[in-house]
Amino acid sequence: MNQPAVDTAGGAPPPEALSPPPMPGGALPKDHTQAILEVTKRVAALLKQSGQPFALAGSVAAFAHGVPARFQHDTDFCMRREDADAAIKALEDGGIEMRGAAEDWLVKGRTGGEEIDLIFELARRPVGTELLERATVKSVDSVWMPVLSPTDLMDSLLAALSEHYCDFGDLLPMARMLREQIDWGRLDRVHRDTPLPDAFLYLLDRLNVIDRGKGTP
C-alpha cells in the first residue's frame, strides 16, 4: 500500500486515495486510473483461473460500487492467508512480478508500471471465509469479479482510522454515494465504542447522511 485513502489493513494510512495528492507548484499528478483498471482486470482474471477465493478491495472496489474513478496508487485484493501461495504462483505464472513486503499482512506485485497488493488482514483483522462469501460479483470496467460488499468496505475503512491517520475527506463522499448500500446499523453496533469511527458516524448523522437512531439513510 503506497498511500492513503482507504487503508484496509494494519492500521497504517489507507492504501489508495480516492483523490490524488497535491503536487508541488500546483501541477496535477499523472492520472493512473485506466492503467490501474487494466492491472485490476488482469489480476482478477488470473486469480479466478487459480480457483482461490478473493475479493477486490480499496478504491477500485469503491469504484465498482459507484464511486467515481480516479486512482493514483495501487489496486488491492484481499484473500485468506492460507490461499496466498497458490495465488502468488498463479500471478507469477501469468507474468506478474511478486515480492514480499516488510509487513506480514500482505504481499506486493507489480505489472505495467502499477502496484498490486494482496492483503491477508483488513485493519488488523484476518480475512476470512465469511467476509469473502459476502463479496458481491460486480463488473469492473467490463470484467466480472468478486468485490468487497459496501458494508465490509466501509467497515474496513472505519477500523483503519487512527490517531496517526484520521482523514474524513475521502470517507465522506463515499458514504454519501454508497449510503443506501451500507448496513449502517451494523457499523454503528461495531464501532460505537471506538472514538474515531464513532466520530465519523456522528458526523454523518449531523449532516443527515444517515439517521443514526434508525441505522438507515
TrEMBL record:
Chain spans, region Disordered: 1-30
Compositionally skewed regions (Pro residues) per UniProt: 12-24
Pfam families: NTP_transf_5
InterPro entries noted in UniProt: NT_sf (IPR043519), NTP_transf_5 (IPR039498)
Matches recorded under SUPFAM superfamilies: Nucleotidyltransferase
Protein's UniProt name: Nucleotidyltransferase family protein
Lineage: Bacteria, Bacillati, Actinomycetota, Actinomycetes, Kitasatosporales
